[in-house]
Fold each of these.
Amino acid sequence: MKENGQLRIGIMGGTFDPIHMAHLAIAEAVREEFCLDQVLFIPAANPPHKQERQVTPAYHRLMMTQLATSSHPSFHVSKQELERTGPSYSLLTVQELQQEYGEAAELFFITGSDTINELHTWYHIEELLRQCHFVGTTRPGAPVDKTALVQQFGKIADEKIHFLAVPELEISSTDIRRRLKAGRSIRYLVPPAVEAYIRKEGLYS
Ligand code: ATP
Ligand code: MG
């Protein structure tokens, strides 16, 4: 898969409120398949589409993301979106990373497949497609059709948008928050260190 010696960096963006096993599992699957040297988990600051609910303070989301990823030698956490003032545009994130790792580094934006279908709503998507790859995870057996994407974005979509089938995990942060509110178990849905942190800080109760 990897034909040159270039550094390959995965970008796993999310609210991570809280981070859970599906986030980690898809990052690991993409890391392996695309021979990524590192995966950067980048907690989002103040996501514009989630204003209908109060997002947990960035400090806690960052701590949980660090706890969840610390044992993996290739997983790292970036604070860049939390430290930036103004909206979390992916284009800015990618531009900052390209500067940090150099022009030769190849960037792979990792997302759920739902997000791939919404790509046209992303800020400066055409430019973003020139700068980085996208990997959309799909459930095994789900049909993958790039025709619509190629119609929308042109030939570059074929080259820069990829799909990877990963085992489907019915886990979401929303469900975890609901379970905690209801006093139910979240064991095996998040790493033990994340659960311990949630309990210690009394989050989501
Ligand atoms: P919420 O329920 O609050 O929306 P979430 O579980 O969707 O949270 P996010 O932080 O919004 O988590 O997601 C970050 C990224 O992880 C997104 O690209 C999303 O598509 C992907 N993702 C989240 N849960 C899963 C899952 N169970 N399987 C595959 N991808 C997932
Ligand atoms: Mg979500």
Note: The domain at 8-201 is CATH 3.40.50.620 (Rossmann fold).
Amino acid sequence: MLATSAPTTTTSLPSLHPLTYSAIPAPSLNPSFLSFSSSSSSSSSSSSSSYSYLSPLSFGLHSKTHVRINPKLKGLRVSCSKSEPLKVMISGAPASGKGTQCELIVQKFGLVHISTGDLLRDEVSSGTEIGNKAKEFMNAGKLVPDEIVTAMVTARLSRQDAKEKGWLLDGYPRSFAQAQTLEELNIRPDIYIVLDVPDEILIDRCVGRRLDPETGKIYHVKNFPPDSDEIKARLVTRADDTEEKVKSRLEIYKKNAAAISSTYTSITNKIDGNRSKEIIFKDIDSLLSQLQKDKTAKSVKPVFQAESRLNLASSSRDKWRGIPTRLNNVPHSREIRNYFYDDVLQATERAVNDGRTRLKVEINIPELNPEMDVYRIGTLMELVRVIALSFADDGKCVKVCVQGSMGEGALAGMPLQLAGTRKILEFMDWGDYGAMGTFIKIGSIGAKEVDEQDDMFILVAPQNAVGNCIIDDLKAMTDAAGNRPVILINPRLKDLPGSSGIMQTMGRDKRLEYAASFESCYFFRLLYYAGTQYPIMGAIRMTYPSVYELHKRVDEPSGKEKYIPLSTFTARPTIDEINDAFLGKPRNKDKKASGIWGFLSGVF
Ligand code: AP5
């Protein structure tokens, strides 16, 4: 019953970060936030005069110059670099002194202070649409919805001054979902400072806080009164600085703090915030000064890289560590995501290096399975970025393509899964070496998108929509691409019951034949009991040019789980073959799909 050669697995599975299955809502990169815009009249450094989502973000070594010597010479790079600016996050309970310390940090280090509280208050006082929406949440001491705050923060971070001078992010992220969004966009601070102050002190600080609307300076009626009567006369109190609201804000802070910190454990510095502001700043100053020194030291050397410059995929190439566990814990940890990106990347590279040109990647871990409610477009984008940047690193010009609107008139539209995708791609961090616009380009699907200088094409989840078929455009594109590689990532090219517009130029058989002409270079699918998505019973994995491996998930007495190899297949196994392997029966090709795996017949 067991096939040819069993795949090699090791018993030491990667250690993965445990996450609670349902306590944490799965964050999603809601594409809708990309479409809203606003303006603010404030001139403060933390305010944004307009939120533009069109300019590509680059949060890295923006001041570096990347000189490409020979694009075809693998991995050889020379970088002349200035010191990379600091990226700092400051967190702490309400009134822990974040704003006060930020004033001092900005004075000394010249970072761009981005305070979500200040940005929101600017919107409120300007009476903008965002301000009106945010006001009710702020006044109630609640968090403003993620899509509003996230759009403001990412837009502000993308502005030139933040890229050049570095940034000091104050008040964001305030939830695990916000932290995950930043991770997905590859926005990582160098340091995460947490100010620690006892609750009873916090309430007194809030209630006694006063703001100078002219200078933005923060005062306290007892601790830091203003120097002159003139200033005193114009001070204002924040609407959310009542004892009752502070308590609510504090509660929300405590509920989220641990989950956010888990994202930044390795760079967290907790500081006792119940001391004089000068002493607190001394601690912060020495941390940041040291960081700055380290960065300067790093940047003086020219960089000759023999390996991937972006380090987005893990360095564990060619050492497959078995299927990672806890795949039903969502959101997936960074380790799990990187694990799969790495696995897919290796398979894709092997296939392209072997001269394969029509390829598809199908991976349905829960975050990449649109049938599940934990699907995350950010994870799909990260995967695409890892693959595209790796090929770009090999000197290839890669076009990343997302299908645009299909159909006409009332029938025009795009599959929900892809809404906003192109915008996200455009404003993602594409690395520090100017790859975007040179070695990476973003395009749509169709013959017109194929330019002479393009070396290969990565198509993001091309799919048919009800009433519209992408295959004509796809076929025209692959014809124009000739023998240049075209890689489909999670395509969905099955027939959909369509309105009259579908299949105008090609028949059904031809369409299916065309869809099948793409060779699998990576396949990963979790197996569940019929009709359920829990528990995971096993997995199928195939990486080019290897066989399909069937694994069974087993619970160990220690409470841990592991995957054990059951069987291998030279072609994608049928439902009967999977059933038989699980039941320990010899293979029976004539049997009908049935049993616990019967439901999968629709999938295969
Ligand atoms: P935000 O403005 O960020 O409020 P906060 O986090 O509650 O923090 P505070 O501004 O109240 O305090 P702070 O730590 O800056 O302390 P400060 O230096 O002023 O956010 C406001 C609202 O916006 C939120 O409630 C939410 O609705 C919304 N929002 C913001 N970000 C969001 C996000 N990411 N997602 C969703 N919603 C979001 O100091 C306080 C007082 O103490 C001052 O009077 C000061 O003079 C005094 N003081 C400071 N240091 C000391 C010291 N060492 N000793 C004695 N007194 C001190």
Note: Residues 1-81, 301-318, 589-604 have pLDDT under 50 and may be disordered.
